[in-house]
Write a structure and sequence with these properties.
- By secondary structure, the protein is α+β, with helices and mostly antiparallel strands.
- It has a three-stranded mixed sheet, with no helix packed on it. A two-stranded antiparallel ribbon has the order 3-4. Strands 5-6 form a two-stranded antiparallel sheet.
- It folds into two domains: about 100 residues, no CATH class; about 70 residues, no CATH class.
């Protein structure tokens, strides 16, 4: 993509309030106009996109060009994602429970309080993007587990435990595909 095309796309996003997602099926950016279908959540209709950094809808008029983007299969690849996860053609996950509010969260702590995410190294819950940024600042200086393991050339222990629990690892702790 040329610089002129990039600048033209950026201007288009500013005027249409479109924003980017990352298709985690085939690994490409895709653009939506403020709502997207989240089949893995059980949605049957598109729902508004939400900025975790600003903790507001993407359509709030702010510049979200520097904010993190949502990993979400694009409309062209969502069926492929469901098939790869074992769903039959045309079958989708069960409908998600009704959200309590417009600001619902897919992450919750052990007490059911909404969070914006958690650390895959130490399992610390984050209740705001400021907490995430403070935790990850200065090469994750505030993450004790990362600091302890950073020279070990290993992956995050919480992610390893999740893979193990989901049955994605062999008895020796390696990926089943290898």
């Amino acid at each position: 993509m040329s610089i002129a095309q990039y600048e033209m796309n950026q201007e288009k996003r500013r005027t249409t309030m479109a924003h980017l997602h990352w298709c985690d099926v085939t690994g490409h950016e895709w653009e939506c106009q403020g709502t997207a279908l989240r089949l893995l959540r059980g949605d049957t209709e598109p729902t508004p996109c939400y900025c975790l950094h600003h903790q507001s809808p993407m359509e709030d008029g702010r510049d979200h060009s520097q904010c993190s983007i949502e990993l979400l299969a694009c409309p062209e690849h969502s069926e492929q994602q469901l098939l790869a996860m074992g769903y039959e053609h045309g079958q989708a996950p069960a409908q998600a429970p009704a959200a309590e509010s417009e600001k619902s969260s897919m992450f919750k702590d052990e007490h059911g309080n909404p969070t914006v995410g958690f650390c895959l190294w130490c399992n610390c819950d984050f209740y705001s993007m400021d907490e995430v940024e403070a935790h990850n600042a200065d090469q994750m200086a505030n993450c004790p587990v990362f600091q302890e393991l950073k020279g070990e050339h290993c992956g995050p222990p919480v992610l390893h435990a999740m893979f193990e629990q989901a049955g994605f690892l062999n008895d020796d702790g390696t990926d089943e595909d290898k």
